[in-house]
Each structure stands twice: as structure tokens, then as C-alpha cells.
Write a structure and sequence with these properties.
Structural class: mainly alpha
Mean pLDDT: 82
Helix content: 55-70%
Radius of gyration: 25 Å
Region (Disordered): 76-98
Distance between the termini: 50 Å
Low-confidence stretches: 93-98
Biased composition (Low complexity): 76-92
Length: 98
């Protein structure tokens, strides 16, 4: 992410939100705080949907792509290895290790 690109997207969204909705935002905080950026993007999308302000959507998506990290699905957690069976020769050592 280019810091300049992120600030530019945040500034454009800030201006449009102020002009169209009266909402004042903090551009520096948008760039440096993921939770705040998510809240602003969510607000912009909500206003776009409810008030027909479709011009907010490209700016919200741009900010999101520059500031909010992509969450990749985590790898499934594997089950722990089973303990040695009673007939297994290594089973006699399981209780002795401390």
C-alpha cells in the first residue's frame, strides 16, 4: 500500500461524505486505524444504499482495498495425534515421561 494513495482515497471520501451527508471524518485516522476505516467504509456503503449516493461506493472500495488487509481463510486446525495404543511397544513410555 502506498501511504500517499491511502491518504488520497481517505481525503476524497472525507470530502464527499462531508458534502453529501454532513459527516465529518478524520483522514489520518482512516489511514492508520483499520477499525475506524472499516466503520467509515461501512457508513459510506450504508448511505449509498439508503440515500442513493452511489458515488460513495467507488471511494469506499478504494479506501478498503488500500487500508483494510485482506483476510485469508485460516488453515484448518488439525486434530492432535492419537496416543499410542495399548498394544504399541511405545505405550509403556507414555506415563513415564515427566
Amino acid at each position: 500500500m502506498s501511504q500517499n494513495d491511502a491518504f488520497a482515497a481517505a481525503a476524497h471520501l472525507h470530502v464527499l461524505l462531508r458534502r453529501k451527508t454532513g459527516r465529518v471524518t478524520d483522514t489520518e485516522w482512516m489511514v492508520n486505524n483499520v477499525e475506524y476505516a472499516q466503520a467509515v467504509v461501512s457508513f459510506a456503503r450504508e448511505r449509498a444504499r439508503e440515500d442513493g449516493l452511489d458515488e460513495l461506493l467507488p471511494l469506499a472500495e478504494r479506501l478498503e482495498s488500500l487500508v483494510i488487509p485482506v483476510r485469508r481463510p485460516s488453515a484448518p486446525v488439525s486434530a492432535p495425534a492419537p496416543l499410542a495404543a495399548a498394544g504399541d511397544p511405545s505405550a509403556r513410555y507414555v506415563g513415564r515421561l515427566r
